Amino acid sequence: MMAGGGGIMEYGVALVTGAGSGIGRGVAIRLARLGARVAVTDVSEAGIDETLGLIAAEGGKAMGQRLDVADAASVEAAFAAAEAWDKPVDVLVNNAGIASLHAFLDFPTEDWTRVMAVNVTGTLLCAQRAGRAMVRQGYGRIVNIASVSGIRAGVGRTAYGTSKAAMIGLTRQMALELGPYGVTANAVAPGPIVTPLTQANYTEATVAAFLPMIPARRMGQPTDIAAAVAYLASPEAGYVNGDVLVVDGGYVAAGVSQTGHLDMAGGGG
Q: What is the domain extent for residue 161?
């Protein structure tokens, strides 16, 4: 977990949730390149295998474990598998997330419950399990993938936006209570990022509407988020705690009005 010439996490184990695609895959690959031993977790075993193959092709070290973050038994099994493979987790990246887009007055209760279970409860369960081991070893990095949707409202994001705002609050709570033990907790809030989670919503019309709102004049990529996570997950970020790093090409700073589309910016997945 200490910095070394070979990479910022030369001696660290990083568990990444939702690492079978999108932002999670980008993060897992980036951390492996930097020397981390990566536990690749996801609900999709096919996605896990593909990510493991990409890491192996670059000579990285990784293992895979199916994980449903909303299920406490599944969380315990994933962390136990990572520990049996190597050692207790030094870095946790809570990236797994889902979304459901509906107008506020028509938002289905069952969709609300499921989004909260994965995005909020899943973050809590994984952070508690990782946090206990991190406190014992006196070191740890927790990075939660939130979203600009947790900072500014957007049409159709009743559950998604609320869940991401809750993740930001949860991040600060972790920072407060775990900080005295050498454990930091921070969030990354992606703006409009092209991932499998967002792809279906990014029609040609939606992208055309989004681009004028983004000063960088482009959609973000998982690699943009991975770069931010790599810093917050490193030993060098030891004095950064309880913060939210917005990675959005200037989307929030621009402060322009939102479109009327049922669209979605950022987030894990």
A: 13-254
